[in-house]
Amino acid sequence: VVCHADAPSALSDLERREDADVGRFDIVITDAHMPSMDGFEFALRIRARAESEALPIVLLTSMAEFVDGSRFERVGFARRITKPVKESELMQAIASVIESADGRARDATEAVAGPPASSSTRPLHILLAEDSAANRKLATAVVERAGHRLSVVCDGRAAVEAVSSADPPFDVVLMDLQMPEMDGMEATGRIRVAESQRGRRTPIVAMTAHAVRGIEEECRAAGMDGYVAKPFRVERLWSTVSEVLGRRLDGEAESAAAAVETAEVSGPEVPWPRLLEVVGGDTDALVAVVSAYREEMTGLLEKMRSPESDDDAARAAHQLKNTLRFFGQDRAADVAASFERQGGGADGAQASRLESLEVDVERLAARLGEVEESREIPVGQV
What is the value of pTM for the model shown? Predict the structure, then answer.
């Protein structure tokens, strides 16, 4: 193994070895973000050399990091591995890439521990439009666990641009309804107008915590093809995606459910088996999701305490409500929902509820902090 601290020195070493035809590398592993030259440019420089045109290159990125799918394919990376990297994942990826006669044909996310996409279906390229960083990390874990590739945008306007410029087009879009800049309904409408001029239609699945009567009909009227309520169950997500694509995605729901098939649970404070199911049984992925949600909760609570406007308070309360429901804290979620409805009104009753909510959030954050520190999921414990 030869290590370099930056891309230029690594490239110089690779060129020297290939020119001398001595000590050629079998595989290159590069970080996406490096000083002076990032991983994409580094890989393109390697590809520009005839001697290393087919050299397998593995890209390291953070779990929630946006990776342009078309750019990834143009470079021809053999794999993408999300950080922090487990030794077992890295060794598995290296062995698989080297053994493969054409490692570059594999999907970028296949190196993430978990079942690959069914051999009867090609891996999907999915666009997620979601403004919550914690929700983006959760979706990344779920999608990559199933062997598919995910591109991420943070608002509706960016979703419209991403769909319009995608070539080849995305297989499906997961669209949150409540986002800044432009909500999911408006974004879907603009996408449909643009697609009508190009003669194609990208399936769009709505994702929202507002599971109220009539919302699914509103989504379909806006041009969406399916609907999933948050917090979603992994089998429900994939069954909906299968439905809008008109074909079955073998294995995803079954493999996720199998991860918790033997779990023994007795009234947990946090429904860990269900959460493990959401991320396909990947403990490290769930720990990363827990960390993201725990950090986000503190910021949301602060926005509710000192909002710049009633809209800011309502948006923060909405996101906090979703987080609390995700972790099975329904009573606290109902309190957050009252703030969402009233836009953060500061009457005495609301102040009392906020104090109660702060206690619940602090207790949950402490519980999540224990899991984050131990990196162990307490399945079957309270």
Answer: 0.47
